[in-house]
Design brief:
Helices cover 22% and strands 19% of the residues. The chain contains two helices and four strands; from the N terminus they run ββαββα. It has a four-stranded antiparallel beta sheet, with helices on one face.
C-alpha cells in the first residue's frame, strides 16, 4: 500500500467496494512533552513553537490492490474517528 500515509488501512465492504481509510489520533500528552524536550535539546536550548495537527478521518475509493481511484475524499469525519467507525457512519459494513 505504498503511497498512503502510515495511518491508512484498506478495507473491502459488504457490497464489494474497496476503500482506503486514513485515521489518526492526537499524540498523548507525555509523547508531546517528550517531542518538545527533544526539540529544545536539538536546538541547543532555543524554544521553538510546536504545533500539533490532527487530521480528520477521511475515506478514499480505491482498487482491490489499494490504488487510489480518486484523491478527493468521499467522506470526512472529525479527527479521532476510527477507521471502522468512519466506514460505518458512511453506511458501509466492513467485511475485510
Amino acid at each position: 500500500m505504498s503511497g498512503w500515509a502510515p495511518v491508512t488501512v484498506n478495507y473491502t465492504t459488504s457490497d464489494g467496494k474497496d476503500f482506503a481509510v486514513e485515521a489518526s489520533t492526537a499524540l498523548p500528552d507525555e509523547a508531546v512533552r517528550a517531542l518538545v524536550d527533544e526539540q529544545i535539546t536539538v536546538t541547543n536550548g532555543a524554544v521553538l513553537p510546536v504545533t500539533e495537527i490532527v487530521r480528520p478521518t477521511v475515506i478514499f475509493e480505491c482498487t482491490a490492490q489499494g490504488q487510489a481511484v480518486n484523491l478527493t475524499p468521499l467522506y470526512e469525519y472529525p479527527p479521532g474517528t476510527t477507521h471502522t467507525d468512519a466506514l460505518n457512519q458512511a453506511g458501509y459494513e466492513v467485511t475485510q
